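ugh finaly. both done.
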Amino acid sequence: MGRAFVAKLAREGARNPEALAAWIGRRKWGRKAFARLAKAGRDEAEEQRRVMDRVRPGGRLAGDLTGISDRDLGRALSALSTDEGARVAAELDRRDVAARMPGARTDLIGESDEALGRRLGTADAAEAAAIEAEMDRRQMVAEVFPGGSLAGDLSAVDEGALGRALAYARPDEAQRIAAEMDRRHPPQPLPTATGDALADRQAMDEILGSSPDDWAYLDEDPPEDRFAGLSSTERWIAEREEEAAAARGAYTRTQVRDMYTAHVYTQLLDAEQATNGNLLTREAHARGVDPISLFTGPSHIAYARATEELKRWWEDQPRVTLAEYEEQVLGQRSAAGERARKARSDQQNRL
């Protein structure tokens, strides 16, 4: 019998309502059937306890909800406070946004981190790439929206993450992201008109980075669009990055990524020589995993697929993620780089 029936017996004056409910249940269902029902009830209660331990560890709502499945969040809702329920609703809203994006894998978005890890163990290359993309999305959301709200300090957040976060932001949060972008790339003030048409035009040309000698391109075939295929937000971020890099004489992010690709292939060749080509575990080799994936992406995936020989080689020649490589080239520390170093340290400490 359920809790409601026990409570009803208590209201009616039963001295031991639990025992009376059990006796009535055995009379109604039979001893064996009642035992099965009781076990099912205990199993359900234990599962609910495990769910609440994940969603509300230590009696407080988890700070990061991105790795908890839709099913568990839904089961926990009835036991949460109004404020906690609002945070869960906000996380589910962000998942709805992700599900509407082109190429979205809705079957992955609602899964838990643990379930994605199990699927990754038997995934082919295309499936593994989709899982890793979803894990990257969750990492971005956790970084930009810690505790379910836009981070108070956006100065250390990568511009690419800020651009992606716009799709998940409320109007007031989108304004804060735009303000942070403007802070990083303040617009140049327009020159004051002097009345000298030639001088005014020259001053404007200097701000725009143009010259009358360059206007002839308007009469020619349009140049190749370097940012073809990008969304308007991605194009805006790429153009601002390129302008900022040119202003400080540094590399653009695209150039850094190309340099990183060359670095990764160099590491792959050196590792193959040092380990006699013994890079992948038997399981990873049997699934057709590309060895290049060992040198990119999350550390826990790379270390799970790497042989002991490669892990020992990494102790002297640490694998470097894109975030860490960007730090080295641009000379700026980043939160993504710190997470990458911690993840690598955690994996090495398990060896």
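ok and the 2nd:
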Amino acid sequence: MDTDLHQIIRSSQALSSDHYQYFLFQLLHGLKNIYSVNIHYRDLKPENLLVNANCELKICNFGLTCTSSGKVQFMTEYIVACWYRSPELLLCCDNYDTSIDV
């Protein structure tokens, strides 16, 4: 992969509506695949979305992921992406689901 989405956002390169739609489509498709195997990603940010010259997007850095098995488990409120906190984390919920990524 050539760069990440953060670098593309910061660059002076103009993006069309088609670019935005294609990135969003790939992101949502990737999250669907991650959630289908019961994984919470928990660190979704532009720096963790790699992009190549063909505008193909890949999700990377699975360091904060956790599984959502049938067992009740403690989930930390601390997530590295401090510039965005989901309402579940702001309210200090210790049992959340995949909605924290969206």
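summary for the 2nd one i guess: The CA atoms of residues 4 and 99 lie 23 Å apart.
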